[in-house]
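Hi F.,

I've been meaning to write this up properly since the lab meeting, where we talked about keeping a consistent format for the predictions we share between groups. The idea is simple: the sequence comes first, exactly as it goes in, then the structure tokens exactly as they come out, then a line or two of notes. No screenshots and no reformatting. I'm using this chain as the first example so we have something concrete to point to.
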Amino acid sequence: MSTSIQSLTPYLIVKNAREAIAFYGRAFGAEELFRLTDPHDGRIGHAELKLGENMVMIADEYPDFGALSPDTIGGSPVTFHLATLTVDANLARAVGAGAVVLRAAADQAYGERVAMVVDPFGHRWMLSQKIEVVAPEEMQRRWDEETGA
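Output, unedited:
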């Protein structure tokens, strides 16, 4: 029996999944594949979005099941890394849709141009663009230099 993992799919819990689905479409070009709506109260119990070649699942909060949003639990320690072809254009699109910039776009020593935003639902997103191929040893050397090691 194989124990290899086949995929990893983030499952985002938010306070308003309808608004979040619309936001992710505007901000990142996510395409909604389907949703299941709770017949009792109209909450979205499960939805799937295609984001590039990736899947993201999303649902409204269900406290009875421990499904709580970053807003409810005081933030999230997780940051989603989105590899893009153009960080600056994607940053402008995300901000135009309602994201807040946490870190402006800047070139990094490890060979990427990076920006960070938080979406209106408390999830953080790092937008990155490969600008240079850097060997791990060179990354470490640059890191040491930047940090004064």
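Notes:
The two ends are 46 Å apart (CA to CA).
The domain at 11-147 is CATH 3.10.180.10 (2,3-Dihydroxybiphenyl 1,2-Dioxygenase; domain 1).

If this format works for you, I'll send the rest the same way.

G.
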